[in-house]
Amino acid sequence: QLQLVESGGGLVQPGGSLRLSCVLSGGTLDYYAIGWLRQAPGKERDGIACISAADGSTYYIDSVKDRFTISRENDKNTVHLQMTNLGPDDTGVYYCAGLDSTYSATYRLLVEINVFGSRGQGTQVTVSS
User: Fold this and answer.
1) What phi and psi, each to the nearest 5 degrees, are found at residue 113?
2) What single string gives the DSSP state of each residue in 55-87?
3) How far from chain centre, in Å, is Cα 44?
């Protein structure tokens, strides 16, 4: 059974940066597409970025494009989310989720990961001065 553990959250000032990490066990990045999900206070959980198992392609929603970067280290079974220029709207619990899929990264894959993927426990990110 796929298990994921997130780390790297915390309190950061507006304009700051954080790097989240997600370590997989029970599966490998050769077969699992990984997405990062965010649940802001009082809101639904949304997918924000994903990376394909098959070709390493990436997809971002518009609000994080050019600020966030998803990457993977297959030898460490780890996926990262580098976040820069953070703002208060980025506050929330960040989850990584994995889905057995060989599709390239698209919005559809991100939705499927959010709905059907196995998730970790999440890590809190708070952007505040």
Assistant:
1) -60, -45
2) T--EEE-TTTTTTEEEEEEGGGTEEEEEE-S--
3) 15
**CA 101 to CA 53: how far, in whole Å?**
7
Look up residue 106 and give its two tokens.
């698209």
**Per-residue model confidence (pLDDT) at position 58:** 98
Q: How many CB atoms lie within 10 A of CB 113?
A: 27
What are the strands, taking DSSP E only, across 1-129?
Answer: 3-7, 10-12, 18-25, 32-39, 45-51, 58-60, 68-73, 78-83, 92-100, 118-119, 123-127
> What does the alpha-carbon distance between residue 5 and residue 34 come to, in Å, rounded to a whole number?
12
By three-state DSSP, how is residue 51 classified?
strand
pLDDT in tens, the chain (129 residues): 999 999 999 999 999 999 999 999 999 999 999 999 999 999 999 999 999 999 999 999 999 999 999 999 999 999 999 999 999 999 999 999 999 998 999 999 999 999 999 999 999 999 999
Please enumerate in sequence order all residues whose Cβ is within 8 A of that of 69, keeping only pairs 6 or more positions apart, or say none. 80, 81, 82
Whole-angstrom distance, CA of residue 115 vs CA of residue 32:
15
